[in-house]
């Protein structure tokens, strides 16, 4: 289980885009295609964010070390879909109406939170190369990359707040996120209870 | 229901009706599911539209229980091609078929105490799979002020594109109030009640901060989550500006003279 699995996951990560392109090609994006595209990309951004956050817990449960080699790619896929989601919102939905975008970001809390989520992910994507890890040093790099936890929370809250009444779907994402972050919290507490409580 | 011989309507200037396919596959009808395509998949065949009865009660001299035919028959059917603006920021142009609500309500002789009209949608878990999830407080209810209900633009619709209403569009009897957000136009009506006090609609109960009683289309008053300044007409790419009272201000602005529409949203 070595060589082929990274390219395989890389190909799988492109499936949602391919699916979207196929439906566009077949003119099968529904009555409100812009909404369909935007929601689809948002869904996959959040899914990849959760998948990336699941790598470490799953690796430790399964004791299958090679999983660690997928973490960066999956994190970058999350960022990739967040970018596409933003591009479809700004380019398709608002058609580059920057004034409306600015008003939306300031006034609509779910968009504010979505935007903060994006901003938090930018430095993580920018420092994802081996050279950046070396340049920053592992400790500082790991500190910075803890930003993925608030980003995950913001992503889920962003989805939750957008829904009008039927919260079942965002609830599922929230539960998955709670498990993934809760597992880390419990583990950190077990290793160093005083550190968790006192913030050291 | 005999729909033949209805009075033809005219589209608003410069507007083209939204294709029937879009009107009947992109619906908000939470009793059949909260996704836009679920009503079209779940409602036809499940919603039993005959026999259909409507209970009329409350502050009126002639309450009763009427069959669908008895409600509609005494009136001439009219086609009305109206803009429909959803609170979510999309819109359509729909050729409805119906009778003016005011003429129907007048037959029940509302008393002087009748200030509002309260409408109720069917809530039958056997027919409506969405009722099992408690996303709203069932049954769905909506209300209008009596003068809004009596306004000549307000329509009690039984059809669409010259045929009977498809189940997913609120068969067999629904309200159409073109200057208000779409959710005010309650579907599959089973009860009409004249009341002295303002009804509390399902959406007001679900989220009073976001949904008010009036819910007039108003580009100057934003919904907390959607800008109401613009809308996407289904079938078009670019957003267009939303019109005050959905473009029916000439006819309905007088209903709200002197009212602060920011406070009475």
Walk me through the structure.
The complex is a heterodimer of chains A (200) and B (265). Chain A has helices spanning 5-25, 33-62, 71-93, 98-107, 109-126, 130-136, 138-145, 148-162, 168-191, 193-198. With 200 residues, chain A is an all-alpha fold. Chain A has one domain (5-189). In chain A, helix 2 (33-62) runs antiparallel to helix 8. The N and C termini of chain A lie far apart (39 Å). Chain B is of the alpha+beta class. In chain B, strands 3, 4, 7, 8, 9, 11 and 12 form a 7-stranded mixed beta sheet that branches. Chain B is globular, with a radius of gyration of 17 Å. In chain B, 45% of the residues are buried. Chain A binds chain B through residues 30-32, 34-35, 93-95, 97, 100, 103-104, 107-110, 161-162, 164-168, and chain B through 21-22, 25-26, 30, 34, 36-37, 88, 90, 133, 135-136, 206-207, 222, 224-227, 229-230, 232, 234, 237-239. Chain A: Its cofactor is heme b; FMN.
Name the assembly state. Answer: heterodimer
* C-alpha geometry of chain A: globular
Strand content bin of chain B: 15-25%
Uncertain residue segments of chain A: none
What Rg of chain B is obtained from the alpha carbons, in whole angstroms? 17 Å
The secondary structure category of chain A is mainly alpha
Percent helix of chain B, as a range, is 10-25%
Structural class of the secondary elements of chain B? alpha+beta
Main beta sheet strand tally, sense and closure of chain B:
7 strands, mixed
Nearest-integer average pLDDT of chain B: 95
For the record, give the distance between the C-alpha atoms at the N and C termini of chain A, rounded to a whole number: 39 Å
| Spatial shape of chain B | globular
Largest sheet of chain A: none
Q: What count of helical segments of chain B does DSSP give?
A: 7
């Amino acid at each position: 289980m070595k060589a082929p699995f990274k390219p395989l996951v890389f190909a799988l990560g492109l499936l949602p885009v391919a699916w979207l392109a196929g439906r566009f090609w077949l003119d099968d994006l529904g009555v409100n295609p812009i909404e369909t595209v935007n929601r689809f990309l948002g869904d996959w951004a959040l899914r990849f964010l959760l998948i990336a956050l699941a790598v470490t817990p799953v690796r430790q449960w399964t004791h299958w070390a090679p999983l660690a080699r997928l973490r960066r790619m999956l994190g970058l896929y999350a960022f990739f879909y967040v970018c596409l989601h933003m591009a479809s919102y700004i380019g398709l939905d608002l058609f580059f109406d920057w004034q409306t975008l600015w008003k939306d970001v300031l006034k609509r809390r779910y968009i504010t939170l979505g935007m903060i989520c994006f901003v938090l992910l930018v430095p993580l994507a920018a420092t994802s190369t081996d050279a950046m890890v070396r340049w920053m040093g592992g400790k500082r790099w790991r500190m910075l990359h803890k930003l993925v936890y608030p980003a995950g929370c913001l992503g889920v809250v962003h989805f939750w707040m957008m829904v009008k009444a039927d919260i079942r779907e965002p609830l599922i994402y929230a539960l998955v996120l709670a498990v993934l972050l809760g597992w880390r919290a419990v583990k950190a507490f077990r290793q160093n209870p005083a550190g968790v409580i006192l913030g050291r | 229901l005999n729909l033949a011989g209805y009075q033809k309507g005219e589209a608003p200037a410069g507007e083209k009706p939204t294709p029937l396919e879009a009107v009947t596959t992109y619906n908000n009808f939470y009793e059949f599911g909260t996704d836009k395509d679920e009503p079209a998949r779940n409602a036809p065949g499940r919603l039993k539209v005959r026999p259909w009865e409507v209970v009329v009660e409350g502050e009126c001299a002639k309450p009763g229980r009427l069959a669908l035919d008895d409600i509609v028959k005494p009136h001439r059917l009219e086609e009305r091609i109206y803009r429909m603006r959803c609170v979510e920021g999309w819109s359509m142009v729909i050729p409805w078929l119906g009778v003016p609500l005011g003429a129907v309500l007048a037959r029940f002789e509302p008393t002087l105490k009748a200030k509002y009209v309260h409408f109720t949608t069917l809530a039958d878990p056997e027919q409506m799979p969405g009722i099992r999830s408690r996303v709203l407080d069932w049954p769905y209810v909506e209300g209008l002020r009596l003068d809004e209900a009596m306004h000549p633009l307000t329509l009690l619709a039984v059809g669409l594109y010259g045929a009977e209403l498809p189940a997913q569009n609120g068969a067999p009897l629904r309200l159409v109030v073109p200057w208000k957000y779409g959710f005010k136009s309650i579907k599959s009506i089973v009860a009409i009640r004249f009341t002295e006090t303002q009804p509390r609609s399902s959406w007001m109960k679900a989220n009073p901060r976001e949904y008010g009683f009036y819910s007039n289309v108003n580009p100057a008053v934003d919904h907390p989550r959607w800008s109401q300044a613009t809308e996407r007409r289904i079938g078009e790419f670019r957003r267009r500006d939303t019109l005050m009272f959905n473009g029916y201000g000439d006819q309905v602005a007088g209903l709200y003279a002197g009212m602060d529409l920011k406070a009475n949203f």
